[in-house]
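input
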Amino acid sequence: MNKIATKYGVFTGFGVILYMLTFYFYDKTIMRSPEVIWSTMFLYLVGMFWAALKVHRLEGSSNNSIGSVLENVKNEEKESSLRSLVATPFIVFLITNAYYALFFYWVMNVFDAELLQVHQELTHQEMLDYYKGTDKISEVRKNVSTDYTPTLGASFTKYILGAIGGFILSFLMALIVRRT
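output
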């Protein structure tokens, strides 16, 4: 089952990178927009779902051919373990998210300095808008553009925090797939 998760994770990771590159070549500022960044989650969910569904079917719980229906009358249908149905999409999520985090770090810090500058300006403006009217706005105004440069440490921290959300998504997806 880990082979399935790894395969789907790699394919989904490449899909996310291609998706981001499409926007990058169209317009760099659009690639960095929150709408595009959050829309990658759709690709994550598709890869996670198909991997979980494949594992579920391989474990025999979705085989509804006439022969298997007659066989299931004699034997109880084998139920996919919840553990494997959670682990598979979670591994897909972790691999895909690693591709995304490394790509985002690489494109900002190595590949395109102009995109990094755009990212810094947009992030600073987003922070000003977010903290407008609070006590923290004076601290945000003191920030310089280099404060918004993606680092490996920050990328790793976001990856770990994303893993928590990925686990919750994987658990919910496992419950849905198990019912199919």
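quick obs: The radius of gyration is 21 Å.
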